[in-house]
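Q: I have 351 residues here and want to know how they pack in 3D. Can you give me a structure?
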Amino acid sequence: MARQADERLVTRPVKMPKRIVERPLRQVGKRLLMALGVLVLTVLIVYLDRGGYNDNSDNSVDFLDSVYYATVTLSTTGYGDIVPYSASARVSNVLLVTPLRVLFLIILVGTTLEVLTERTREEWRLNRWRAQLRDHTVVIGFGTKGRSALETLCATGLKKEQVVIVDPSARVIDTANAEGFVGVIGDATRSEVLLRGEVQKARQIIIATQRDDTAVLVTLTARQLNRGAKIVAAVREEENAPLLRQSGADAVITSASAAGRLLGLSVLSPSAGTVMEDLIQQGSGLDLIERPVIKAEVGKNVRETGDLVVSVLRGHRLLAYDDPTASPLQLTDRVISIVRASPVTPAQSPE
């Protein structure tokens, strides 16, 4: 039974964010009121011109006959026992009753048409989204860690359209949709679930699952599907970090140890702890960034740059600022520096 439930969960489609304009019950209520209004208007038209109609049973048309005629006419039943015979009655049927009949039918089938239109629109949006999605970010696990990581990326200019959330909880995906993110419901250790999130075309993958063993399996699956993506994973226990790196993660963050070190640093020096927390929070105060070396900095010493450089990334080597081989800077180098945070405009995007 658990296996069948899991398969049904995996086959659920990608959920894209949408804004609910009006509650369904309110929409149905409005449609019923409109249909009732059309019926009442038709009854009044027939009753006011009742002299131009003929009832085969008694040759006269009263109010009840008007209601009866309007009902069978709008529903296109048309038994033929009450018919318009005068010129005015026939003109009113052509110019008023017939358009009201069409309007009445449109209102009645409007809900069905809306459902079909919505399905077509959602399918078109999904196909268009898949065709345009490139170099996006996949966040696996939308808990505290995943949400915080995504907030940091969005603070640097990452657009919500370039993010896909993967989580086994439908409620979590609904929350992600409400915040404007595309979500995929399912177990991220299964390749078909990750393929729904187009992980094979992603530029970076964030793995923030609740369990370390799940993080290892997800990392293995994601690396198999995408050899070139940058994979960053979080683990609870530091002893599992080497296993994540062997599984294909480019960077592994030990959440429990990192929080503990920050707590210890804050005890020894509250000011130092404040500075570290400021560096972690992207977009305010001081930011820790990675950027390429510009031409004006080529050949200069690390300390001669405009930023406070703390490390130099040369190829696959990470050199400290005081490493003799870090200077002079080369054009292919990337520097990790501390800068004053600047507000991100909508036109900006991450490198």
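Q: Anything worth noting?
A: The first helix runs from residue 2 to 10. Residues 228 and 344 are 28 Å apart (CA to CA).
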